[in-house]
């Protein structure tokens, strides 16, 4: 299970990479392996705003439909359109080409509520609940 | 009710299966991935644990007339060692289950029923057996079953038995042969749309059989295959799944299974309604559809035509062999024509789709 040290994690299995005021968001290796083969990603509109905990995207595997929740509040400034034609990027490179959105954070203190990699390792080891 | 395990439960863990609950059973949804396993069955072979299926033996001088009353297809047409697919209906025409009837002898049949329906079917059969001289025996717990499916199935199995597999035709069985030194009932049947076999054996022998088949098949591309691809495989060839395309509320005529209903045979459960539906045409039909806009239809999503609800999705998923998002649904008969534009309501939004012909996939040369 690949859980990079430098990222932050939500309990809902999203990863967050902070670059100044923006946060790049995707789903973790654990999440993609639990989902199985991803066949469809419903992406949000660019420039829409989200609050922490909002469902902003839906990932569908062959068998399952899963909501993706915003780990931070803010404005969605970029959406990974490549997922429209290649949803399996989420399986192949969950931390790379399989990123989902970039959010311009409105309250960076929300980052304090996220898990570090050690805590997320623990969560995944417990089966993700 | 406690979740049940098949005799292969530990084996699934050993092979890396991801276990889920299905119809009261703990079974693997996948091992390496649904698409991967699906592809293996279409091009090489896959091995499934279907031990959760139910088996009921019907014995006695009235076995045939009892079955003729119970099911819609004509059991009298069966020869010894031949198999019949048939719906089993309530008196009102709704479906109790769909099953296979194996004729072992004139007074001896084996019925193979869906796992989630075992108790219900058993009660229904008992209720209908009253006036007949038959003995019913539920051997579900004493019977394990695995399915070897895919174009290389015969080649793989021939390494483990001397039985003349190439002579075994589709929907025929060998009542007792040796496979890998174990006594099994072997039938040329399956739920994937590919060539293949279903192997019935003792729960004590099934782990050894599974391991041996995997061992000889693995070098040829055989993969263990889970329930996930079992569903996508049967979906592409539009085999109905009870609880989806067939139910107490969906008759086999509505499901498009008219060829398995022999209205000219003597009285059977549901005959009146089914006759009426066949004569006048059913009010609803199961159709196949393809998503035109982006989205995946799922069971129970509403189907609309020009803003009005006309039906509901019964199965919807990504179809790996066709690389398309497809679905089956039950809709008002007037819209059940190829080319009809429909909308699927997905999370509150209408997404365009279109009725297409069934099945979605056909194996080459068939």
From TrEMBL, chain A:
**Protein name in UniProt:** Glycine cleavage system H protein
Quaternary organization:
The glycine cleavage system is composed of four proteins: P, T, L and H.
Q: Which cofactor does it need?
A: (R)-lipoate
**What positions does the domain Lipoyl-binding occupy?**
22-104
Gene transcribed to yield this protein: gcvH
Look up the domain of life of the source.
Answer: Bacteria
UniProt GO cellular component terms:
cytosol; glycine cleavage complex
Q: Which residues in this protein are found as N6-lipoyllysine?
A: 63
One Pfam entry for this protein is GCV_H
Query: Single Gene Ontology BP term?
Result: protein lipoylation
Read off the InterPro entries from this record: Biotin_lipoyl, GCV_H, GCV_H/Fam206, GCV_H_sub, Single_hybrid_motif
Q: Family membership, please give it.
A: Belongs to the GcvH family.
Cofactor binding description? Binds 1 lipoyl cofactor covalently.
Residue stretches in coiled coil:
none
Automatic annotation (TrEMBL), chain B:
Domain (GCVT N-terminal) spans 8-265
One MF term in GO for this entry? Answer: transaminase activity
Concerning NCBIfam families, the annotation shows: gcvT, PRK00389.1
Which Pfam families has this protein been placed in?
GCV_T, GCV_T_C
Query: What function does this protein fulfil?
Result: The glycine cleavage system catalyzes the degradation of glycine.
Q: Which UniProt keywords apply?
A: Aminotransferase, Methyltransferase, Transferase
Species of origin reads Pelosinus fermentans JBW45
Which GO BP terms apply?
A: glycine decarboxylation via glycine cleavage system; methylation
Q: How does it assemble?
A: The glycine cleavage system is composed of four proteins: P, T, L and H.
What family does the entry list? Belongs to the GcvT family.
Which sites bind substrate?
198
Provide the Gene Ontology terms for cellular component.
Answer: cytosol; glycine cleavage complex
> Can you name this protein?
Aminomethyltransferase
Gene3D superfamilies assigned to the protein according to its UniProt record, in alphabetical order: Aminomethyltransferase beta-barrel domains (3.30.70.1400), Aminomethyltransferase fragment (4.10.1250.10), Probable tRNA modification gtpase trme, domain 1 (3.30.1360.120)
Q: What Enzyme Commission number does this protein have? A: 2.1.2.10
Instruction: Tell me yes or no: is Methyltransferase among this UniProt entry's keywords.
Output: yes
Pinpoint the Aminomethyltransferase C-terminal domain residues: 284-362
For whether the record's keyword set contains tRNA-binding, the answer is no
Task: List the catalysed reactions.
Answer: N(6)-[(R)-S(8)-aminomethyldihydrolipoyl]-L-lysyl-[protein] + (6S)-5,6,7,8-tetrahydrofolate = N(6)-[(R)-dihydrolipoyl]-L-lysyl-[protein] + (6R)-5,10-methylene-5,6,7,8-tetrahydrofolate + NH4(+)
> Which segment of the chain is annotated as a signal peptide?
none
UniProt cross-references to PANTHER family, sorted A to Z: AMINOMETHYLTRANSFERASE, AMINOMETHYLTRANSFERASE, MITOCHONDRIAL
């Amino acid at each position: 299970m690949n859980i990079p040290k430098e990222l932050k994690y939500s309990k809902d299995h999203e990863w967050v990479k902070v670059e100044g005021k923006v946060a790049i968001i995707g789903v973790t290796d654990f999440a993609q392996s639990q989902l199985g083969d991803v066949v469809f990603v419903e992406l949000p509109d660019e420039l829409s705003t989200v609050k922490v905990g909002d469902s902003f995207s839906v990932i569908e595997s062959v068998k399952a439909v899963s909501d993706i929740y915003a780990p931070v509040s803010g404005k969605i400034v970029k959406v990974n359109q490549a997922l429209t034609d290649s949803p399996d990027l989420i399986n192949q490179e969950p931390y790379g080409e399989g990123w989902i959105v970039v959010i311009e954070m409105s309250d960076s203190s929300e980052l304090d509520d996220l898990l570090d990699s050690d805590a997320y390792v623990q969560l995944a080891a417990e089966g993700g609940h | 009710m406690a979740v049940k395990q098949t005799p292969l439960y530990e084996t699934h863990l050993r092979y890396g299966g991801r276990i889920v609950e299905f119809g009261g059973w703990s079974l693997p949804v996948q091992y390496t991935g649904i698409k991967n396993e699906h592809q293996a069955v279409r091009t090489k072979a896959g091995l499934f644990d279907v031990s959760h299926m139910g088996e009921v033996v019907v014995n006695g001088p009235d076995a045939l007339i009892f079955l003729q009353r119970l099911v819609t297809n004509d059991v009298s047409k069966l020869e010894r060692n031949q198999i019949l697919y048939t719906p089993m209906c309530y008196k009102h025409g709704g479906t109790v289950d769909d099953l296979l009837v194996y004729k072992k002898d004139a007074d001896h049949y084996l019925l193979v029923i869906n796992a989630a329906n075992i108790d219900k079917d058993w009660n229904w059969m008992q209720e209908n057996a009253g006036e007949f001289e038959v003995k019913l025996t539920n051997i579900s717990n004493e019977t394990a079953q695995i399915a070897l499916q895919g174009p290389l199935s015969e080649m793989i199995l021939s390494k483990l038995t001397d039985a003349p597999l190439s002579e075994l035709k589709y929907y025929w069985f060998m009542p007792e042969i040796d496979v890998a030194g174990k006594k099994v009932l072997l039938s040329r049947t399956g739920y994937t749309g590919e060539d293949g076999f279903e192997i019935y054996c003792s729960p004590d022998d099934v782990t050894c059989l599974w391991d041996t088949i995997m061992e000889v098949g693995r070098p040829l591309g055989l993969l263990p295959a889970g329930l996930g691809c079992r569903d996508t495989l049967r979906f592409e060839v539009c085999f109905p799944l009870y609880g989806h395309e067939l139910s107490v509320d969906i008759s086999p005529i509505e499901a498009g299974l008219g060829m398995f209903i022999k209205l000219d045979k003597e009285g059977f459960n549901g005959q009146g309604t089914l006759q009426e539906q066949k004569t006048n045409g059913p009010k609803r039909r199961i159709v196949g559809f393809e998503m035109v806009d982006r989205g995946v239809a799922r069971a129970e999503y509403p189907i609309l035509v020009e803003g009005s609800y006309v039906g509901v999705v019964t199965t919807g998923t990504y179809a790996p062999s066709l690389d398309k998002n497809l679905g089956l649904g039950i809709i008002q008969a007037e819209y059940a024509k190829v080319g009809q534009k429909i909308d699927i309501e997905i999370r509150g939004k209408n997404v365009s789709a279109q009725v297409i012909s069934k099945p979605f996939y056909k194996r080459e040369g068939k």
